Prior knowledge:
By secondary structure, the protein is an alpha+beta fold. It has helices spanning 18-23, 58-64, 66-70, 73-76, 102-114, 151-161, 167-175, 179-190, 194-214, 220-232, 238-241, 293-299; strands at residues 2-5, 7-9, 35-38, 47-48, 56-57, 83-90, 96-98, 134-138, 142-148, 245-250, 255-258, 264-276, 282-285, 313-314, 322-324, 332-338, 343-345, 352-365, 368-372, 377-380, 388-402. It has twelve helices and 21 strands.
Amino acid sequence: MELLENQIRTYAWGSRTVIAELLGEPVPSPHPQAELWLGAHPGAPSLVRPAGGSPRPLGELIAADPDAALGDGRDRWEGRLPFLLKVLAADEPLSLQAHPSLAQAQEGWARENAAGIAVDAPHRNYRDANHKPELICALTEFVALVGFREPARTVELLQALAVPELASHTELLAGQPNPDGLRALFTTWITLPQSVLDGLVPALQDGAVRLLERGAGEWAGEARMVLDLSERYPDDAGVLAALLLNRITLSPGQALFLPAGNLHAYLSGAGIELMANSDNVLRGGLTPKHVDVPELLRVLDFGAPPPPVREPVDDPDATGWRRYAVEVEEFLLRRADLDGRDKLDLPGSGARILLCTDGEATVEGPDGTVELPRGAAVFLAASDVGGVLASGDDGATVFLAGDAL
């Protein structure tokens, strides 16, 4: 068992309170704190500090003894930790984005390497050769745009907004209410000349204001979203593209699983994010970062149904734990809510990361005990068997990330 020292990513959309409060640091933080990374990704690896030694990246510890760290998963994961755990805190919207499949990531990685594009170049699309399916589990109310809405419903939204400048676009989708129509309209919007966008976005703002003044009913959230995004990104085609996506609000404890090709944007809230160990992001707007529209269009899935909201279910393999079912092998998220002085066996057989998000706990193992106050995390190697999780007097909430083998 190794306590982890985890790195914070400071992006403009981050929160000055959520991660700082979790870690017991001064609030507000000096800079927006967007993500806390827990894992072995080279972009921001967690550090371990052996007794009497200097801190070193978690990946080095795993590489030094992959059998002990990964167990039976050593060969399947080629000696690397297969997942990346994050705490995500969004006070402002994230970019409109999608992630590639494994085959697309491998091809894109090889193609950009052959072109001589540096891995850290701002215009690089593929920073590794892995796919990035991901699960987001809400810690607070969490609002997201996820997947393309059923086309007929989007036509109803566009008709409710009643923007004359968008009438021909509404007719395009109404005449072809299927994935091909979505592709055509999305492609049209995302490639509009700036001179056209400069007129369309204000017209859309006016339509949203009129809709709210009339009583927006079921589309109130979408109308307010238009106003928020257009104020932040007044010259961005992503404001239009956002109209095509499902707007979903998660309550704490609920989750969404996003497979490859799913266009999405997280708008606000804090959550636990677990994904394959990758940092491949293809952006379509709502960001000052690199946007590659042709590459994004190559990976988008316009025909996928909206992802269902997932509730945790009792883990059949671990008493007292709940799990979020996913359709990938790289990761599995478990959660436990313990009352005061509870004890639970630690499940899983491979490498795992345990994070305490509320209260305080301890991990008791054959080689000793590790204290886990709120915000602390511990790496459990495959060889760390027989561990017991115990909560303090006031209970604890913990998340356990591992693979799904």
